[in-house]
Amino acid sequence: MAAAAGVSQGTASNVFNRPEVVREEVRERVREAARVLGYAGPSPKGRLLRAGKAHAIGVAAAEPLDYFFADPWARRLMAEVARVCDARGAGLALVSVAGGRQVAWSIESALVDGFLLRCGGRELLVEIAQRRGLPFVALSLDTAEPDVPAVDIDDFGGAREAARHVAALGHRRVAILGIGLGDMAGRVTPEAVRATRFVNVRERARGFRAGLAEAGLAEDAVPVVAVANDGGNVGEALGPLFDGLAPPTALLAMSDLVALEALGWLRARGLRVPGDVSVAGFDGVPEGAESRPPLTTVEQPFARIAERAVAAILDGPLPVGREVLPLTLVVRGSTGPAPDAGA
Question: Sorted alphabetically, which keywords does the UniProt record give (predicted)?
Answer without folding.
Answer: DNA-binding, Transcription, Transcription regulation
